[in-house]
Design a protein that fits this description.
Layout lengths: L8 H7 L26 H6 L12 H14 L3 E5 L2 H12 L5 E5 L4 H13 L3 E5 L15 E7 L11 H10 L3 E5 L4 H4 L9 E4 L14 E5 L4 H11 L5 H33 L4 E5 L9 H7 L6 E6 L4 H10 L15 E4 L15 E5 L5 H12 L4
Parallel strand pairs: 2-3, 2-4, 4-5, 5-6
Antiparallel strand pairs: 1-7, 6-7, 8-9, 9-11, 10-11
Helix pairs in contact: 1-3, 1-9, 3-9, 4-8, 11-12
Amino acid sequence: MSDDKKLKPETIATHAGRMSDAHFGAVNTPVYRASTILYRDLASLEAGNTAYRYGRLGTPSSSSFEDAANELEGGARTIVAPSGLGAIALAIQAVCGAGDHLLMVDSCYHPTRLLCDRTLKRFGIETTYYDPLIGAGIEKLMKLNTRAVFCESPGSLTFEVQDVPAIAAVAHKHGASVLLDNTWATPVYFNAFDHGVDLSIQAATKYVGGHADVMIGYVAANESHRERLESAHHDLGLYASGDDCYLALRGLRTMPVRLARHQESGLKLAHWLAKHPAVERVLHPALETDPGHALWKRDCKGATGLFGVVMKDTPHSRFAAFMDSLKLFGMGYSWGGYESLIVPSKIHRSAAPFDAKGRVVRIHAGLEDADDLIADLDQALAKLA
């Protein structure tokens, strides 16, 4: 399939990564649970050129998922990781080492910030946080030892849209790699490599898996970063089980269809909330009133079901009554599953403070009927009056 670049995401998601001929005609690659791989003879063991050599290095289960994800990404190589954060750590360590400088977007996923401030610092990697809206202005932050610029667009919790092509152009001029956490848009709605990214990262736990029952991630590389990614993955000993790869691939098959529903419901909720008297503003790049709308419209093919809401200031007791009155929205971390979720957002910044007088909540629109979700929000928001 890799030779046909005109296929739509829905078609790629349906057909990519299938190995039916190798599995007696079965449509889906079975779950392989393996540590030891037996060689036919000494010559094949000494040559080490068989398709599979050791369970940690891959099985048909991981290969099927990686191949399918790679087709969607349009990359040279995609490698699975045990979680989204594991994929982020893998990507950074593929390009950065002791004495290097990393530019990290200030609106990043909070565990990414902790990785930078604790583990990477201990390993001798310096991190500078930058304003997500900096664009080509990132030039002023580049150092002689800057090895990578990390983007996350839209930003975690606050949903700023970054000018990824402008940032990538500056980074490449200085010989730095560009990494992107593309979990919100997925490769269905934002093609990272077409916009100058070198390593595209997915917390496949979310929209790829889609059912809130698997922890997994992956990193997709362009050709210039393929070997670095493969070496880092091998040396770090990262691994995802055959069961998890099976679940992730099963979710990937329907991801484009689910994303369309998430987008539709998310926008319907966002428009309704934007008019509600208890809401200060809605953080959703697909809304025409959003500051990042123009960039989103230029670069993205769609939006997903995750967005933020800045509430008008209210006593904690009333806010708790609102949250506890919701019946269809679960309170729990992560997102991207079939279920609707809501959580308060705790925003961490060091370079670009986020201005909000009231509380910020993050909403994930699931696959329920949007009118039912709106009715649930309406009755709960009445508790704020």
